[in-house]
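Collaborator request, handled under Task 6.
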Amino acid sequence: MPINSRVPSTRPRFPHAWRILAELKASEALPALVSLLPRLDDDVDDWIASELPSVFSKIGWESVDVLAPFAADERNGIYARGSACRSIGEVATTHPEQRGRCLEILTNILKSFEKNDQFLNAAIVSVLLDLDSVESIDLIRDAYAKDCVDLDCVGDLEDVESELGLRAERSTAPKRGKFFWRLQELSEIQEATRPRTIGPRIGRNDRCPCGSGKQYKKCCLEA
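Structure tokens returned to the collaborator:
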């Protein structure tokens, strides 16, 4: 997930309730469950992001009827839409007979890659990878060609092709996103500012600290 200033929510959550709804396959609760997704764009809600996709898949294929219009609606936030796409992918995994329908929904959203946020496109590509959707590769390549996929989420095109079994090895250096390079920059700054321990100064005529018994100038100083 890209760097952002959102902070964890202290709002109470009820994971046990939606787990029970999932076990009961309570399709009548789907609208209420989908209404929780916008919280992902308001705050960091790990429970919703990690558990709701499984809840939707357990309830069954009826979940797609509610998730599909939500995921396609541009008025919804990108994290909420991304989670809806992830949930659709979970349904396809749990109910293989729904795979074709779910892929059609996901690829139709991805076709708007030039209008979509890069993170949303990456979220969809990630789901397509989970579904081993080799048949979607041309659309995925088009999205990458227009630089419309967040590289921090799923890597570059060669990473995707490798995961789909379409490439045996890389032909170019890996491409990474802004988040990756920012982390590397912070790591280099941290290393540059790390306190250094300076040992005692060794004179040229002193015995070499390596233990050879020679003078420093005739041993490691010349190395």
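The cover message to the collaborator said: "The two ends are 48 Å apart (CA to CA). DSSP finds twelve helices and no strands in the chain. Please let us know whether this matches your experimental observations."
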